[in-house]
Each structure stands twice: as structure tokens, then as C-alpha cells.
Amino acid sequence: MPWRLHLSLEEVTNARRQGVREGATEFQLLAGCTQNLSFDQFLEMNQRAEATAPQLHLKAFTMVEVHCFCPYREAAIEETLKK
After folding, report:
1. Where are the alpha helices (DSSP H) in the chain?
2. Helix axes 39-52, 9-21, angle to 10 degrees
3. Angle at the Cα of 58 from the Cα atoms of 79 and 67, rounded to 5 degrees
4. Cα radius of gyration rounded to whole Å, the chain
5. φ, ψ for residue 71 (rounded to 5)?
6. pLDDT tens digits for 21-56?
7. Strand, coil or helix: what is 6?
């Protein structure tokens, strides 16, 4: 799959399925610090990825990314992590 800044939700789901077929044990979602997608869209991407192949370990959202989400949500870090 060619590298792009953003993948659609369907592309993320397809990539996770492909990873399962190829023997992957971990799937990483990196959101970055961007305002192009909302926090809710990132959460949906995470939920879809988890539902697609729950046997894969899902690594998502670094602390830098969580920190970047807070101002957009007008929320504290603790509240963002609970979401």
C-alpha cells in the first residue's frame, strides 16, 4: 500500500485484515498532531481496527498525540485518555 498522510477508515480496516493474512501480531495506528481529522474520527478508526481483528495487539495514540487532541476537545489529558 503506498504511503499517504491519511488513510480512510475502510483502508485501515483492509490493512488490518491484510496484516492478519500475512501473520502480523501487532497493528499500529499513528494519528499525528493534525486538525484534518476530529478526535471522534480517530476513535472510530481505533474501534474499527480493534473490531476487525481483535487477536492483533493494537498500539494507538502516543502521549504526544493525546496532548495534541486536548485543545481541540477542550478537555484535560485525563479526560481524553478515559474516552
Report:
1. 9-21, 39-52, 63-73, 77-82
2. 30
3. 30
4. 13
5. -60, -35
6. 999 998 887 766 766 777 788 788 888 888 888 888
7. coil
